[in-house]
Amino acid sequence: MTGAALADTREGTPDTLPAPETPAKPPGLGELITPIRGRLTAAILAQAAAAVCSMIPFIAVAELARALLAPGGPDEGRAWAAAWTAVGALVARLVLYAAAGILTHHADADFQLDLRRRLARHLGRVPLGWFTDNSSGEVKKAAADDISTLHHLVAHTALEVTAALVAPLTALVYLLAVDWRLALVALLPLVIGAYFLKQAMSGGEEVTARFFGSMGAVNSAVVELVHGISVIKAYGRTSRAHRAYDDAADSFSVFFRDWIMSTTRASTSAALALSGPAALLLATATGTLFVTQGWADAVDLVPFVLLGPAITGSVMGLAQSGHAVQGGLQSARQIHALLAVPPLPEATEPTAPGEDGGRVELEGLSFSYDGVTEVLRDIDLTLRPGTVTALVGASGSGKSTLARLVPRFWDTTAGTVRIGGTDVRDIAPADLYRQVSFVFQDPHLLRTTVRDNIRLGRPDADDTAVERAAHAAHIHERITALPRGYDSVIGEDAVLSGGESQRLSVARALLADAPVLVLDEATSFADPESEAAVQQALSALAAGRTLLVIAHRLATVRDADHIAVLDGGRIAEQGTHDELLTLDGRYARMWALQKKGGA
Amino acid sequence: MTALLIRVLGREQTDRLRRVLLWAALAAVLQGVAYALLVPLLTRLLGNDPADAWPWVGALAMATAVYGAVAFAATVRGNRFSAELGRHLHRRIGDHVVALPLGWFGGERTGALGQLAGQGVVQVMNAAANLLRPLCNAFVTPAVVVLAMFAFDWRLALAMLVAAPVAAGAYRWSGRLIGRVDRQSHAASVETADRLVEFARHQPALRAFGRTAEDHELLDAALREQRAKARAAVRIGVPGIAGFALAVQLCFTCVLILGTVLAVDGSVGAGELIAVLVLAVRFVEPMGAAAELGGSLRIARGTLERLEGVLASDPLPQPAIEGPLPETYGVELDGVSFGYDDERMVLDGFDLCVPAGHTVALVGPSGSGKTTVTRLIARFWDVGAGTVRVGGTDVRDLTTEQLMSRLAMVFQDVYLFEGSIEDNIRAGREDATDEEVRAAGRLARVDEIAERLPDGWAARVGEGGTALSGGERQRISIARALLKQSPVVLLDEATSALDAENEAAVQQALAALTADRTVLVVAHRLDTIRGADLIAFLDGGRVVEQGTHEELLALGGRYQEFWREREGARGWRLAARS
């Protein structure tokens, strides 16, 4: 065993999760496993009993030796009793051991389900602002990988540690009873082994950090080589990028060798001190000395030869379990960090949206993602039922953020958003989503049937309603041409182009039939060839609703009832197309640029 | 397994592995010898004159010392091999990967490859450093013990061996069961991970349509399935594990019972029996360890198999001798057929000629093969039939460097290296002067980006260019292509709309890039299409119409229909009262 066991490659990615707010104590595993604590305890008890049983055959053989070597000739009855005790203990051990394993694995299966559900529930309530580009990676890491790491801890390590402690202790107690002097000698390898192990692990954290640093360099070189390959080849940088990668690989190899070799002497010494031959040599050498000097009976040596290696053998296993525990605790911390992301507060006494559910008012609204930089400032805007309001402006001017405040993807820093006269924070989430629907630039299709994708917002909608929505979104014919029609699964037998996916998402919004609709760059086309069809679908969707639309192409929204031009988080200008042109300001400049560009 | 190792590691490393294994096996043999010495030692110790045991204690001490020395040497060799193996595997992957056709690198493959070259290699290294010796101990030591047993008492040795085939059978059976369980659990956890990522990624839509975690049946079903699979794993796996443990115990039990019978009737000395039983324990223990090693072994094997998958993909064939560079800059596709898989041809008898200095626009419905055409010219893949020629030379007769020196590509997915803006532009031509880099930057209007950022031209772009907006990344990639000054430009026009200012800047940059070059553009913008010297309308993997804008409109065919629709779409306005 060498330090390489440390090379647990599930490296801690840079911790981008917000730290839990003022943790009273570092959250550990304890709280997470509360629901299965009872079963875990039972399993550990069963395992402890199994560990005791595993030592009984050795003791029985020692007793067998006593019976056979009895001064008055072999005591047949005692011999058979010892032999059958050994067999019985082996069977009992197996049964208990299996029971412990089954208990922890079942408990762990429930634990994983429970914890993943808990995480998913929590994620469903944190502000959408938390979900950034890399957050799906974080979610996967916490909810899939970290929980799987805990699996090892819950289902295996707890039992391994129990066995590794109880078995040698049982052996030690028995040996002390047989001959305390020999028992103390048998502990000697433990002391030597512990000394070397400590040496082997010294500077562990710093070296581990360097290990991950070096491995990170290889990973970056791989990523650069693989993701940048088309650029690398296109610009004839192959040899250079290749060299950088080779260099990283070489220095990793050198580092790995130096690291592993620096601990080889100590860790191998520990392994040898704790090995079977060493323990046996010690037991037989001291034993022979004791017997020849008449300090002990020869038959009393037998237990030491049998049990001596059992005392020392489990220590190496314990050292390994230590790594697993560390990894598990690290994972538990990650999961806690995720659970500590504050959710959006829910209204304690929710109010229904007012009579005029299609009216949206944004008043004195400011917003900041990080509490430092204001993304939106002093926004006043009213969306009237049956009208189109367009948000235009450069990238980063805050258009998308503003649009997303309407369905309360975040809470405002200052000011209010009211729908039908009611503050969105006072509306129950379910009611709010019935009022506001959203069509995104990304169609957000789920890997399930086309039908279920369309009725995402109204799971109880019947087939007629689904098909009506698909018709209106100009996608029905395409769906019926799919191998299994509405039962085709997105990404499996329903492979749709960008424009088709967009129309499907429009059908979804049509079916949800909310009075307020936000189109976030839905007019920017992934697939120019089906532009016209998407437009018809959007026109169908827009009819008769309160519409808030974000558009890059100004021509699309020139007929809007109201256009708000955002600049640096403020509304710089607002009015109709003609009014804004007369103003000859930002909007007029943008219009001129686009006219010239001919987009 | 050996064949797999040779394929992945290469013969030289496999030979090294064999030598390392030999040392490990030698250590295991010595361990077995040390154990075997216990029988004469204990027999004497339990006999009439315990002092007779001393020579055997000496022998055991010797054997232990030699074992220690050999074990140390074996560990050192294993560790050195492990480090060398890591370097070797990394290099092997790197050398192979750069020779693969560009088309090989797509979506999931790149992620999986990164994982394989990072974690995967370390797993194999770990196996080499930490698994080889325990593995030898698990198999070689019991074998030596059994052989020694025959020397002491053949009846007890036989009793031990009677159960050995049962144990071997149980080991294989249990391995198969666990393999099945692993595959099932793996599939379930992949599904869960996918659903979780889906849940997180589509959170805006899920929330906008009122789906919370409780209502999101797709995720919950995956989670429940994973639990069901975990429970099934216990149901299927436990009999296997328990069966093997039982079989191993059976070995010990046979010796114990037979030994007791023989000892009670006096045909075996009591001391000898006890010694043999001690030995039997040493026989059984390493076999138990074998079961625990199985898991790590399967992981290492899985990694090796995935490595094999990468190494088995065919590299792009290079010409045996480097021919002369083409001197003209036209591009021709002649009777080209190509499909990504055997089932569907993307291009089928495709002919196209881009004369030097001309601009040809490719238009047509999505899936008609437009992008594929540009990628075949850059030799992301080799054609199935027909020829692609640049400057009159078959691209397969050019080395990658030669071909690439002729081409500048601006595709939709822009990759920027970790580094500064300036570094990224300079990637277009390493020996360019600072002034040339800045000039290219100014032409592509990157100077405006540099002015905006605190570090100017030295500002870092972040890995993959994540610190910049899409339009800004495009401008930098165009500057890079400008600096390269290649005679042929392959352009895949962005479909997603940029804001007005970025759009104008990108158009200017592209105009600078394409001036006086041979240009093949997958065109979406109506102005680009109209301004091309020749328009090729693609459908079903062929050019169905070609000509100038006016000619094609006059033709009254597919292009005219396409143009009318696009013109109509451009005039579309969104209004609540439609």
What would you say about this model in short?
The complex is a heterodimer of chains A (599) and B (578). In chain A, 59% of the residues lie in helices and 10% in strands. By secondary structure, chain A is α/β, with parallel strands linked by helices.
The count of strands of chain A amounts to 10
CATH superfamily grouping of the largest domain in chain B: P-loop containing nucleotide triphosphate hydrolases
The pLDDT mean of chain B sits at 86
Largest interface: A-B, 182 and 166 residues
Overall number of structural domains of chain B? 3
Tally of contiguous helical segments of chain A: 20
Q: What count of helical segments of chain B does DSSP give?
A: 21
Inertia-based shape of chain B: elongated
Structural class of chain A: alpha/beta
Low-pLDDT regions of chain A:
1-26
The major pleated sheet of chain B works out as: 6 strands, mixed
What would you give as the CATH superfamily of the largest domain in chain A?
ABC transporter type 1, transmembrane domain
Membrane topology (chain B): Multi-pass membrane protein
Subcellular location (chain B): Cell membrane
Domain ABC transmembrane type-1 (chain B): 20-297
Keywords (chain B): ATP-binding, Membrane, Nucleotide-binding, Transmembrane, Transmembrane helix
Describe this structure in words.
The complex is a heterodimer of chains A (599) and B (578). In chain A, helix 15 (463-472) crosses helix 17. Chain A is 59% helix and 10% strand. Chain A is an alpha/beta fold and 599 residues long. In chain B, the strands form 2 sheets. In chain B, strands 6-7-8-3-9-10 form a 6-stranded mixed sheet, sandwiched between helices. A 4-stranded antiparallel sheet of chain B has the order 2-1-4-5, covered by helices on one side. Chain B has helices at residues 2-9, 11-36, 38-45, 54-99, 107-130, 132-152, 154-162, 164-201, 203-208, 217-264, 270-312, 370-377, 400-406, 421-426, 434-443, 447-452, 470-484, 500-514, 526-531, 549-555, 558-570, and strands at 331-338, 347-354, 359-363, 385-390, 393-394, 407-410, 488-492, 518-522, 534-539, 542-547. Chain B is elongated, with a radius of gyration of 35 Å. Chain B has 3 domains: 1-140 and 293-317, no CATH class; 154-267; 331-570, 3-Layer(aba) Sandwich (Rossmann fold), CATH 3.40.50. At the A-B interface, helix 2, helix 3, helix 4, helix 7 and helix 8 of A face helix 2, helix 3, helix 4, helix 5 and helix 8 of B. Chain A: Residues 1-28 are annotated as: Disordered. Chain A: Pfam families: ABC_membrane, ABC_tran. Chain A: GO terms for molecular function: ATP binding. Chain A: It comes from Streptomyces lanatus. Chain A: Residues 360-593 form the ABC transporter domain.
